[in-house]
Amino acid sequence: MKNSFSQDEKFYSVNPCTEEVFNEVPILSDSEWEQKLCLSDQVFSSWEAKDLTDRIAFVKNLIKILDRKKPELAALITKEMGKPIKQSLTELEKCIKFCEYAATQAPAFLADKKSLPFAPENSYVMYKPLGVILGVMPWNFPFWQVFRFAIPALLVGNSVLVKPAPNVMLCGVELEKLFIKAGFSSGVYQNLSISVEQTEKMIINPRIKGLSLTGSVQAGRKVASLAGQYLKKSVLELGGSDPYVILDSADLKQAAKECVLSRMNNNGQSCIAAKRFIITNKNVEEFTAFIIKEMSTYQMGDPFISENSLGPLARKDLRDHLHNQVNHLVDRGTKILLGAQMPERKGWFYPPTVLSGSISSGIDSFDEELFGPVALIIQVSDEEEAAKVANHSSYGLGSAVFSQDREKAEEWARNRLQAGSCAINQALHSHPALPFGGIKDSGYGRELSAWGFYEFVNIKTIF
Length: 463
Description:
alpha/beta
């Protein structure tokens, strides 16, 4: 059985629920991807020269097409990577909302900045595109991840090439069709069915002026190394091991609900999912009972059936790796409170799982991301230890803190938790108007909001 990897010069799409191959996409030859790159470079000048209002009009066309094709595209997402169909529809709705936001705000974001305090008279700052920007995109949000990178880059005036993950190549093919149907000039947005080795060749090609990657730390280090060697702007979003800290004054039932909501989103395969629930001895027993109750409500099964809230993991190797991580934690003293058994059924399912432990019981490293429906409850002696444990990770993408003392919770969010984003008394999520990105091994750069628009531009000063 093929496992969503490239074989025989093709990428295969495999339904993670049935394990059946349902599509194949040929891998481009080196000459074919070079032709695509040349086209992208050639059309850049004419695309840049278009008035911003014209580029905005194409984005508005895209919104209409996305809205009309939502059921069809949602079905493709679910079939190719396994998330519940309701969540696939939500992903597409999020893409539409971001396009609306970007189209509305682009004129203000990209207008010349004049009358700057203390600047010389008649000086100003303007924004110019860089050229061809390469996006290396993941499989867990095959549409949303592309949109939040590509839409600002295109509105600024760059041309864009996107390499999807191997197991969602059909989503990538459909995305290019959407942009063409919306009226974007031929070559301005192109999909690339290329291998990792070919991607590395493309990165170092002088026509590529910048790149954005969402993926693993290992992939990020490789891309950052190549980008640095060839002096190219890069944005990296590399996942996380997000801590959710439950302070002693928290509403435990509400906190548990939000923690599980975050942990189980996208079948647990989200970079900013809650991955470590940190709570003191004082409340651990009651909080754990709430967590187990909430996790037990998730019904595992065919993601096309609306009653099922937990679909399969996207690939067999991902499920096997997650199970090995769970077994490793158990071997070191972590207790299984729910799940952790490999289902005997077709499809790459993994059950809702709750683990519990403490630093003393062997949980001494948080540098491995649990990418699936596994909640890890970490018991600490007091809130001071909670802060140390929360930050004891090489990751720094998202975080959350729960307390009925709002002032205290905000102080924790501002000063105690080391992450690119922090939520208070709710599950963390991205928002079009707020910058998104991480620190430490979670990467650098920002997407969304005005900050996302300014990543791939020449911020040009005019005297």
